[in-house]
Design brief:
Strand order of the largest sheet: 1-4-5-6-7-8
Radius of gyration: 16 Å
Helix content: 10-25%
Distance between the termini: 31 Å
Bound molecules: zinc ion
Number of helices: 1
């Protein structure tokens, strides 16, 4: 994913990067590469962006499905990691309702391994 977007429909300073969205079809949590990617983006973008809805923190999101039928995937939730707080969250959807749970705080053990500690 490119770190910057040039879109002539918008003034150059009006576009901000907030979420890096992608899919984990098999429901696995965010990988070390995912976390390293958004942390690298946090070095070129603001960790927090002021929007009309208030302050929003830069984060990476991976959607997952619990469907066992590959031809009929469902969106059942997503993992979200926020580099500013090192917090990983799990969002799940049951019926029409979203639930947010803390999944833990990230500590790096080495370049490619992280540990999650419950809050
Ligand atoms: Zn990923």
């Amino acid at each position: 994913m490119p770190p910057f977007v040039d879109d002539s429909r918008y003034a150059p300073d009006s576009l901000k990067q907030i979420f890096a969205l992608h899919n984990h079809p098999f429901g696995t949590r965010l990988s070390a590469r995912d976390l390293r990617f958004i942390e690298s983006m946090a070095t070129v973008h603001d960790w927090e962006v002021l929007t009309r809805e208030g302050r929003i923190r830069l984060s990476i999101v991976a959607f997952f499905s619990r469907s066992r039928d590959a031809s009929a995937p469902t969106c059942d939730g997503f993992y979200q990691y926020v580099p500013a707080t090192r917090e990983m969250m799990l969002w799940t959807r049951t019926g029409g309702r979203w639930k947010q749970e803390s999944h833990g705080t990230v500590t790096w053990l080495d370049e490619r391994t992280y540990r999650l500690d419950a809050l």
